[in-house]
Structure formats: C-alpha cells, structure tokens
Amino acid sequence: MAKRLYEELGLVNSKEMFKKAMEGKYAVPAYNFNNMEQLQAIIGGCAESNSPVIIQVSSGARKYANQTLLRYMAQGAVEMCRKDLKSNIPICLHLDHGDTFELCKSCIDYGFSSVMIDGSSHTYEDNIKLTKQVVDYAHQFDVTVEGELGVLAGIEDDVKAEHHTYTDPAQVEDFVKRTGVDSLAISIGTSHGAYKFKVKPGESVPPLRFDILEECEKRLPGFPIVLHGASSVVQEYVAMINKFGGKMDNAVGIPEDQLRKAAKSAVCKINIDSDGRLVMTAMIRKVFAESPSEFDPRKYLGPAREELKKLIVAKNTNVLGSAGKA
Ligand code: G3H
Ligand code: 13P
Ligand code: ZN
Prior knowledge:
EC number: 4.1.2.13
CATH superfamily: Aldolase class I
Active site: 96
Bound molecules: glyceraldehyde-3-phosphate, 1,3-dihydroxyacetonephosphate, zinc ion
Radius of gyration: 19 Å
Cofactor: Zn(2+)
Strand order of the largest sheet: 1-2-3-4-5-8-9-10
CATH class: Alpha Beta
Oligomer: single chain
Family: Belongs to the class II fructose-bisphosphate aldolase family.
Number of domains: 1
Mean pLDDT: 95
CATH architecture: Alpha-Beta Barrel
Helix content: 40-55%
Keywords: Glycolysis, Lyase, Metal-binding, Zinc
CATH topology: TIM Barrel
Order of helices and strands: HHEHEHHEHEHEEEHEHEHHEHH
Shape: globular
C-alpha cells in the first residue's frame, strides 16, 4: 500500500464511517465548503454535536478558493478541531462531483481521503470505464470512491438536467462489481439547488422513490448508498431572504421526515450544500438591512457563520441522526 497522505493530515476515508452508519441506522452528513466561515461552522457544529463529518469540495469550490489553500484549510480545520475544540470526531475530505480522472487524481495527490467520480452523464459502459480507472488509482492509497448511477434533475456544476433519470436497480449490482466503488449515489427524486420541485406555495412535494431505494438495497445488501440534492430548503431562511430584499419565490426542498427515513436505511451519506448557502445569505441580508452602515466583514460573516453552525447541529440531531455517533 502506497503512503496515505491524508492520514498525515489527520483525515480518514469513508469506510469505517459508513460501516458504523449502516449498523447504527443513521447517515453521515456531507457538507460543502468554499470558504473559511463555512468550514468553521461545519467543524464547529459537528464537534458540538459529536458527529462524524464529510467536508466536501466541488471543482467549482476548488477553482474559487484555490486548490492549495483548500488543502491547507482542511488540514487547519482538523488541527483546530483537535487542539482548540478538543474533539476527536472523524473528518473525511471528499471531492464532490469529480468529472475527470485527472481531477480525482489531483485531489488524491493533494491529500483528499475520498473522491466522487460522477460519470452519470456518460453512457453506462463509459461510466463504468471511467469509474474503474479512478477506483484503481484511489485504492492504491486507500482513498474511498463514490460513483453515481442515474441523473438528478437540477444543476450539477455546469450540467443542467431538466428531468430525473431514476437509477435502474437492475444495473446497480453489475456497476458496483465491475467498478469496485465503495459507495453509490442514486437518483430517487432528490435534486440539486433551492428549487427542487415545481409546486405552488402550500402544495406538497412528490415523495421520494423509496421503492427504488429498497430495490437497490435488496440487490446490494449492506452497501453504502449516497443521496445528493438533499437540502430541505428551510422555509424560515427563504422567508428571511425574501423579507430582507431577496427574491426566492417557490424555493422548496426535500421534507425532513423523508430524509430521516432515508437515513435509517442503507443511505449512509447525505449531501447538503444549498441549505448552508441559504442560511448565510439570509443572515448577511439581515445585517445589511438592519445595520446599513456596517462595513466590517466580520460583522456580517460572523452572524452568518453562527447561524450555519446552529443549522448543522440541528441537521445532525434531528435529520441525519449522526449526533453523538462520532
Ligand atoms: O452538487 C453541487 C454542489 O452543491 C456544489 O455546487 O458546483 O456550485 O460548488 P458548486
Ligand atoms: P443540495 O443542493 O440539495 O444542497 O445538494 C448538494 C449536493 O448534492 C452536493 O453534491
Ligand atoms: Zn451533488
């Protein structure tokens, strides 16, 4: 086995986390970050609720924050967690929606402990080929790999899909066997972003396709499943954004009870990005509206960070069931 750079950074891969999540019937939260305040809130919230955590970076985040800086930010976050927060929660650094072998390799070489190769926009055979190439490289370093079958409606980086292509359960066994992936993202009706369903205010959203999830579980017993596009789009923050000058009409997400149900199944990882974005935007708008003369970024980023931390504690406790499981 080649040297594991991520271990030197104090990180773990997702293997043990998922094993415990499967046994304990909860899901590990995977929160996206692009900047220091988000990272502080994620680590602070997970340390406070004693939850394992996957901190994840998209290719867009890597471009935004700089790949070298991000790697040291993750390392710094681990040290802050151990030394200052006195917490030993397991932390996994994961590439979200990697779309090429080169990007996945680069992240592994930078010290990521887990990567996603999202070949879902390719044909089935090309998805297998690309995913296996990443798995073969990653496993030399004991880095875990997430694959994807099926397409989520909504926006994945620059790729926009109008409709879901639900995962075909008949394919999952063959895909996992031929690629060697460690976990699989499936499409059961979740979608990325803050506008997940076209419904009018007050109308209920269509339920997730638990039948597909159950069929996948039957064919892959004990295998970790991942849910993307799993923000609830918390209405309190949407209302706050609209109250303080924003315009987010009909923003709607996945009801928390459905996510709770999924977390008790083989779903071991739940991805949340949009909810964090909404919280920060709501708080920043509030400060700007209530204190228009304020111009110190700490005065608006600080409250945004605090509110995000609260959201994370609440998610881990009430939705994912990961609180207290570190
Ligand atoms: O699934 C997408 C994540 O929310 C990351 O979004 O590509 O805008 O960083 P991003
Ligand atoms: P949301 O847009 O629902 O937060 O999903 C995030 C995600 O799936 C990141 O990969
Ligand atoms: Zn995603």
